[in-house]
Amino acid sequence: MTFEVRFCSHCAAPLQRLMATEDGGPKERLRCAACGWTHWNNPTPVLAAVIECADRDGRLLLARNAAWSGRMFALITGFMEAGETPEQGITREIAEETALQVETLELIGVYDFQRMNQLIVAYHAVARGEIVLSPELAEYKLFEPAAVRCWRAGTGYALADWLRSRGHEPQFIELPPR
Ligand SMILES: [Zn+2]
Question: What is the reported pTM?
Answer without folding.
Answer: 0.90
